[in-house]
Amino acid sequence: MGNNNFLSPKLFNALKSLWILLLIFVVLDFAGNYFYPETDNTLSKILDYLSYTLSSLFFLWYFLVNKRWKSVLIILPFFIILFFCMKGIRNMVDYYVPFEETINSDTLRKWTYLIIQFVTVFVVSKRYLVEEEMNIKQPLLKLFLLNLGLFVLYNTDLGLIEKLIGSASYDSKTTEFIVNFVYYTLTSIKNVAYLGAFFFLTACLANRESFYTFSKEALQTANKYFVPAMLIVISCIIFSFGGLLESALSMELDFFGKDLTLIGWMNMVVIVVFFVICTRFTGQLLKERRLLKQKYYGAVAASIWVPLINIISLLMIRFDDKIKFLAPSNIEKAKKVHLAVISLLIIFQFRNGLMEKKVDDILMCIIYMTAFWIVAYIKKFTWLFPVVLGAVVTVIKVYPFYNGVYDQEFVFKDYVLDLFKHTFSIALVLTVIVFYGIYYIAYQALNTKK
Asked: Where is the domain boundary, 209, 227, 259?
């Protein structure tokens, strides 16, 4: 990998050495969690310290690989406080601060953590500003928000996957070992992918780039390292998509997020913004590569965010010069073929519901197919499209004739109340965000309008 003018030498060094960090995390994170004892003892304390050390290594990676020892020495005490001493500090604050009548113990502990985290993020941001020497407006504020986002993303887990593994029973120790190894490998990939995206976005900040519409220089830099860039951004999309999906399921009837705490709001906002940035970057990068190489990726690029399928998609795009399917002589005819392939995949996804003649599955199948055909031909993709799509899907899902909510008869008042609850819930907002990301990538992949 050779450097270029878009990435600073320090950011480039940090990015190209991420594979080392990934290996360290896969081995030590798995070992530290798999062999963690059920009771507290000396081994559990050692493994706790190993986990804290890994977390510190993660956030110090940029400074360590670039041998910025002064920055390391300035930041390290704050990580020692945040990771190694946090439990003791929380207990001390909870014991000595006389706020029992105005604030409960749990809230006090959370605020203690947040304040120390904010201070740590500020110090880390300040050192990035010193090292990168950014000449932009409000650089410290922008770096603070970017670093805060990284801290939030690092603290997210795999949600549903973790719950399934934790509640599962295993026939043998070998099966348990393999499942846990896969889980902690995925966790390591998630963390390293988030860090890689953070380094690239830091470069965008330094170059006064927009996080919404990326410049040719940014896209061509990513295209130069297409495979590692796509591995990072696709991983970010998949894991942030999982976070959005879990949030949508857990807050299905949460009016305007009234059940969310401050930390919950922070997590949700960061994941939403990050998902939108990653999907927009992916769509724009695929379009830039298509135009540079005079190809038509269509269904191949539109499915690049789908786990497992994206392995084939990525390989096809990487070796697009050897695949005639991606270089059609008549693009308009090729577009129809690609749309037909997508339609068949959607039908396959809903095959059980279609065979059983479930009305909601039939409607969903038609709606999703229609949506792909629309984005392939519309002049401009805006937020109006996912909002309308999300509203239509919500109406169908809530309608009691399809959900079987009312056993005896349809009551219009109850239906309107159900619809109102879903319409003004966080779940619908998150559904719109997901639709935006998925169909934005499809728009850039399928649509030939410049």
From this structure: 209
Distance CA 426, CA 28 (A): 37
Two structure tokens written together for 358: 């479930």
Q: Which pLDDT tens digits describe the chain residue by residue (450 residues)?
A: 555 679 999 999 999 999 999 999 999 999 998 888 888 888 989 999 999 999 999 999 999 999 999 999 999 999 999 998 888 887 777 667 766 566 677 777 888 889 999 999 999 999 999 998 888 788 889 999 999 999 999 988 876 666 666 666 677 788 888 888 988 999 999 999 999 999 999 999 999 889 999 999 999 999 999 999 999 999 999 999 888 877 666 654 444 445 567 777 788 889 999 999 999 999 999 999 999 999 999 999 999 998 888 899 999 999 988 888 888 888 889 999 999 999 999 999 999 988 988 888 888 999 999 999 999 999 899 999 999 998 888 777 765 444 454 445 555 666 566 666 655 567 778 888 999 999 999 999 999 876
Number of domains in the chain: 2
CB 320 within 8 A of CB 327: yes
In a domain, 93, yes or no: yes
360 occurs within a structural domain:
yes
Q: Which of 161, 191, 209 is the last residue of a domain?
A: 209
In this prediction the pTM is 0.90
Q: Give the range of the structural domain holding residue 165, as residue numbers without chain letter.
A: 9-209
Q: Could you give phi then psi for residue 207, rounded to 5 degrees? A: -95, 15
Task: Give the amino acid at 203.
Answer: A
Sign of CA dihedral 292, 297, 300, 302: positive
Tell me if residue 102 falls in helix, strand or coil.
coil
SS3 40: coil
